[in-house]
Amino acid sequence: MSEPHLLPLLGAPPLERRDAARNRERLLDAAKELVERDGAHAVTMEAVATAAGVGKGTLFRRFESREGLMAAVLDHSETEWQALVMSGPAPLGPGAEAWDRLLAFGRTRLETTLLHADLIREAGRSGARASGAYSFAATHVRYLLSQLGVTGDVPLLAVAILAPLELPILEQVSLDGFPVDRFYDGWVDLVGRIVTPPGAAART
């Protein structure tokens, strides 16, 4: 199985004219700055339009709804993370052993989910992360499992590995006061029950 290609996220815009693409980037930059400053829950379409210097109608024509705008901002962040997975420095990117890449993937996926939790909630109804970004993550995990020689129902095992890193599960666990490092250590233990780590005795 070859290294998966960078997958376009659901709802990604079609090819645009250069000026239209510049305008879209300006709107996304304005939205991203407001999200970072005030939190996604506090960002309004009017505030983004004002910050970008455009009319609110232009913003709605571009993204259709507030949820659509939040999904586009999330899409941007997810695409940056995908690029690091595909071509960034090891161990997250190529050049490290598959086991080390899988552990780096889990850590960064956990951190990214927590970092963008507010944004994921606000964009949730658009399905952007649940469809496009999840498809990329699942493909990458299946690729790493194949590199590690995992047998059985690999797609289902990939789902089991990914599930704890998604926001609904993290929100439930956080109610029990799990610190991030404890959660990550537990996730590594879970993965180690599916994959035999290099140098470890085979599990029976």
What are the main properties of this structure?
single chain, 204 residues, mainly alpha, Arc Repressor Mutant, subunit A, 2 domains, 66% helix, 0% strand
Report the count of strand segments. 0
Gyration radius, to the nearest Å? 19 Å
CATH class of the largest domain: Mainly Alpha
Number of structural domains: 2
Domain HTH tetR-type: 21-81
Keywords: DNA-binding
Protein name: TetR/AcrR family transcriptional regulator
DNA-binding region: 44-63
Short description:
Keywords: DNA-binding. The chain has two domains: 15-63, Orthogonal Bundle (Arc Repressor Mutant, subunit A), CATH 1.10.10; 66-192, Tetracycline Repressor, domain 2, CATH 1.10.357. Helix content is 66%, strand content 0%.
Overall description:
The chain is mainly alpha-helical and 204 residues long. The protein folds into two domains: 15-63, Homeodomain-like (Arc Repressor Mutant, subunit A); 66-192, Tetracycline Repressor, domain 2. The model has no long low-confidence stretch (mean pLDDT 86). It has helices at 18-38, 45-52, 56-63, 66-87, 98-115, 117-123, 128-147, 154-162, 167-174, 180-192.
